[in-house]
Amino acid sequence: MSASNIEFLSVPTEIAEQALVLCHPRDVASFAQTCRAAWSLVNDTTDKHIWRQLFLLFPFDDPRKTCEGFRRDIQFDWKTELQRRVHAELVARSARSTPEELHAALVTFLDVVRSAPPVILGCEFVPSPSLMWVADVLASTNMLQLPPFTQHPTCQIVARLRSYLALTLDEYDDEEGKSRMKSTRTTNRCRVYDLSQYDRDSDWGPFMPKTGEVDWSHVECLMNVIAFNLVDHSRHFRDTRPPCGLEATRAYSAPRATTRAPQDWAGVEGNWRRIVSFMDYRDLFAFNFSILGHAGHTQGRSFFEDPQFSEATRLIELKLHLISADAVPKYYTLNKFPQCEDTKYPTLYFSGSSHGIHGREATIVGSVHMSDDGVVRWRFVSAREARMQWSSEGVQIGGIASAMGVVGTWTGAHHERGDPAGPFWLWKAPDGYPTSVRALIPVG
């Protein structure tokens, strides 16, 4: 034991503990290894209060306040979790990290995002320190811009985090950034408008064949296609954009979600906005059955790089309300979701109406399901004169009733060969928005 240790440990325990909680966790861990007395001071408490204080002062969200959402741990290991997060940041900031270390760090960042506390009534505008930390580390390290990872699990985590961020960390003001974004857009369009991606095995949406798990790389492509199209139509949609960023992924961050009806766990009821994009059917047919069928994806990229190519983008308003399973109309023949094992999240059914700026109105019927991995899935159709026309499969981006909303694919409701398909983004309309979607579009 050094002389400095003897002097420090001779002060009253309360003062020593207070001094330690003002240190960086790495320094506290190093101090604990200097001698047995130091180790006991730092670790020999039932509730690990020094590590708890270090965790909360870092600062991170208090996990004891996460009564809903994705964290269900009864006991929280303050020391282990704090050290895990600190190490993840070190890995992200190091130029010598191994692929295994990077994967573990990405898992940690994703866990922090998914365990962020839900928004509660009266605190709707109080940000999450944990999410601010993740955003800061990812932005300052460019970790998600590293050369493509080759391992499938790591690729999925990167794509999931990028989906949660929705290009908010991407820089594209300089020529290099613009070139990178142009290439990204082309790659995303090739994936989104490839009709072979949508079949019974993928549930006609952004899901892994056979397993049914979310394919986050596909979700990222869908979001990016919509996001780039909104930039192109900024004059028309400047005040009508889905919320983006990690704060918008928090459970119950959507407008009025904190005052929802008790039975509406998914925050279904209310007014929604929906952006859909689609190709001219002649272009879609040519891309899928002439170019991809003969020349492959290399030639497919040049199809979207043609300066004359364009997509259509439409804004649609929806008004939804819950209905009982018995009230689902007979013409709704899509497969029904199974019941969730967690009784807090029964499968919900809803109906409502939708209309666009040209006044075409349709009936909406669908359901919401909590999957086993904690991802909320949406499935619905638009129908006219009691006939299904278009079906949609989507996933909630982030937690339950997140402000970021639902992203997925639409296609023909009867899934016939040659049916068109495209991306959509659905989100809850904020308070104070016009009740008519036509009022959102400038005239002239």
Describe this structure in words.
The chain is globular. It has helices at 3-9, 13-20, 25-32, 36-43, 49-57, 78-93, 99-114, 129-141, 152-165, 175-192, 216-232, 234-237, 281-294, 297-305, and strands at residues 270-278, 312-323, 348-356, 361-370, 376-384, 387-396, 406-412, 421-428. The model has no long low-confidence stretch (mean pLDDT 86). The longest helix has 18 residues, at 175-192. It starts with a helix and ends in a 16-residue tail after the last strand. A hairpin with a 2-residue loop joins strand 5 (376-384) and strand 6 (387-396). It is α+β, with helices and mostly antiparallel strands and 444 residues long. Strands 1-2-3-4-5-6-7-8 form an eight-stranded antiparallel barrel. Helix 6 (78-93) packs across helix 7 and helix 10 (175-192) crosses helix 14. It has 14 helices and eight strands.
Notable characteristics:
alpha+beta; 444 residues; globular; 8 strands; eight-stranded antiparallel barrel; single chain
Q: Topology of this structure?
A:
Blueprint: H1 3-9, H2 13-20, H3 25-32, H4 36-43, H5 49-57, H6 78-93, H7 99-114, H8 129-141, H9 152-165, H10 175-192, H11 216-232, H12 234-237, E1 270-278, H13 281-294, H14 297-305, E2 312-323, E3 348-356, E4 361-370, E5 376-384, E6 387-396, E7 406-412, E8 421-428
Antiparallel strand pairs: 1-2, 1-8, 2-3, 3-4, 4-5, 5-6, 6-7, 7-8
Helix pairs in contact: 3-4, 5-6, 6-7, 7-9, 9-11, 10-11, 10-14
